[in-house]
Design brief:
Helix content: 25-40%
Shape: globular
Radius of gyration: 25 Å
Distance between the termini: 73 Å
CATH topology of the largest domain: Pyrimidine Nucleoside Phosphorylase, Chain A, domain 2
Structural class: alpha/beta
Low-confidence stretches: 1-6
Oligomer: single chain
């Protein structure tokens, strides 16, 4: 182990039970015996060092010796986990200058175009947690104003290279991705077993929800373990042709996860940043053929066909640059897909479709079949145009369900039971009419307020879709929750605005 540099104060590490999100935060006593905290004024961050290990962190002061003693360094959860040393280890603390790559961020704020090495340095600092959330936000906002095609390519490449690089023995590795925003759109959990049952390789890595009520990883975790290591993921794919794993656990494009955690609360979601985010993860995942689902609707991320066309061209531009074959499909984003919103409810929909149950949501089944058909067409031995019929056969025959069961068994049991929330309330129509619009964004917010995805059994069970006739007092949907506070708030929000609009008859004004 390298000796501690001279002149650096040393404190004993202590694990402080503080969840500071992704930021590294340390707590030091105002009466510290090893250093004078007032010397750190003007430095928002400190450098921690033990041997060859270094880490930047934001420093907080406390007068509470029961939290951190004068000879201790309190490390909040993220900093303690990343440093990886046992409690009581001596760690040197010194003021930390800002990362040099922030000069490039300042240049971008002033409207300058960044070169690839500048962007590479920014991504490297992001991936090593050297930026605070405020500094990350500065980069995102500066890039949101304008990003050249060269900057987009450089950002995608740097993010793809920053983490794990997965490579597969199969010549054709297919994948799919939806840009999100549509509640219940859990097609991946049906597409993967269909495609894998045919024999194509489809190692699906998915994200957890950040501002939505469920991500694919959250929903799959109702059925199986998703926090697979790289080795475990490769074993599952070798035995099942596919998997449904949490991408964050295998460290694919780690800088992207940090950017997303900051941009979502700020409602930043520019096309260039979205493309760099998605494509960097697919490149890192070793995909050769990628299908991208672009839902278009009044409350979707894309509201017009012209927006979808521009985004399609960006995806194709980046795909061509890196040799990744990209196919884009534009889908109906006017309403939720399936009948459930929230991990457990969405998992019920998925398994109902795979089991060919009569009450399974037809829209989820049909969309999944069409997406699977596109991926199956990449099999060189399959005649052109035969993908849909094959997907339908694999689903109807039970082959897809058997493949899903095989994947679930290979990934391992779910970490906990996921019963539906026992607090329920039906949100009823205040008038009779025909459902003319459904606000997807508001339904997402209602389901999150009810507790999803943290409480996997929380969410919304839908009873009515577009075009359905509703009588006054008839339920539109049911809210499920576990915690009274979130339940009461969600019900109150739904009663103020149910997210449903009714017309007296199709084509008439409300």
């Amino acid at each position: 182990m390298n000796p501690t540099p001279p002149g650096r104060a040393q404190l004993k590490s202590r694990h402080v039970n503080l969840d500071t999100g992704r930021e590294n935060v340390v707590v030091i006593s105002r009466r510290s015996t090893a250093l004078r905290p007032e010397l750190f004024r003007g430095f928002s961050r400190v450098e921690l060092r033990s041997g060859s290990q270094t880490q930047l962190a934001t420093m907080l002061l406390t007068d509470d010796d029961s939290l951190v003693g004068p000879d201790e360094l309190g490390m909040a959860e993220p900093a303690f986990r990343r440093f990886g040393l046992p409690v009581g280890s001596y760690i040197a603390v010194a003021p930390a200058p800002s990362p040099s790559s922030l000069d490039a961020v300042r240049a971008k704020i002033q409207g300058k175009t960044l070169e690839a090495p500048d962007i590479g340095a920014i991504v490297d600092d992001l991936a090593h947690y050297r930026y605070s959330d405020m500094e990350t936000a500065a980069f995102l906002v500066s890039s949101a104003n304008f990003m050249t095609s060269g900057e987009l390519i450089a950002l995608t490449e740097a993010m793809a290279r920053a983490g794990t690089q997965l490579r597969w023995s199969a010549k054709t590795v297919v994948d799919k991705h939806c840009i999100g925003g549509i509640p219940g759109n859990r097609t991946s959990m049906i597409v993967v077993p269909i495609v894998a049952a045919h024999g194509l390789t489809i190692p699906k890595t998915s994200s957890r929800a950040i501002t939505s009520p469920a991500g694919t990883a959250d929903t799959m975790e109702v059925l199986a373990r998703v926090d697979l290591s790289v080795e475990a993921m490769k074993e599952v794919v070798a035995s099942c042709n596919g998997c449904l794993a949490w991408g964050g656990h295998v460290n694919l494009s780690p800088a992207d996860d940090i950017l997303i955690s900051v941009e979502r609360p700020l409602a930043l979601d520019t096309h260039e940043q979205m493309v760099a985010s998605i494509m960097s993860k697919k490149l890192a995942a070793g995909s050769t053929h990628l299908l991208i689902d672009l839902p278009v609707g009044p409350s979707a991320k894309l509201t017009t066909a012209s927006e979808a066309m521009r985004l399609r061209k960006l995806f194709q531009f980046v795909g061509d640059r890196f040799g990744l074959e990209v196919e884009i499909v534009t889908t109906d984003g006017r309403q939720p897909i399936g009948n459930g919103i929230g991990p457990s409810l969405e998992a019920q929909d998925v398994m109902a479709v795979l089991a060919n149950e009569p009450e399974a949501p037809r829209d989820l089944r049909e969309k999944s079949l069409r997406l699977a058909a596109h991926l199956l067409e990449h099999d060189p031995n399959l005649r052109g145009g035969a993908g849909y019929a094959l997907a339908s056969e694999l689903l109807t025959s039970g082959a897809a369900l058997r493949q899903m069961v095989k994947i679930i068994e290979a990934q391992g049991p779910a970490p906990s039971k996921s019963e539906l929330g026992n607090l329920t309330a039906d949100i009823r129509a205040n008038r009779s009419g025909v459902v003319s619009t459904i606000d997807c964004l508001r339904l997402n917010r209602l389901a999150r307020t009810a507790g999803a995805p943290l409480d996997k059994g929380a969410g919304i069970k839908l009873f009515k879709k577009l075009g359905n006739r509703v009588e006054q007092g008839e339920p539109l949907y049911r809210i499920h929750a576990f915690e009274p506070s979130g339940f009461d708030l969600a019900v109150g929000m739904a009663e103020l605005d149910s997210a449903y609009r009714l017309e007296t008859e199709v084509g008439a004004s409300p």
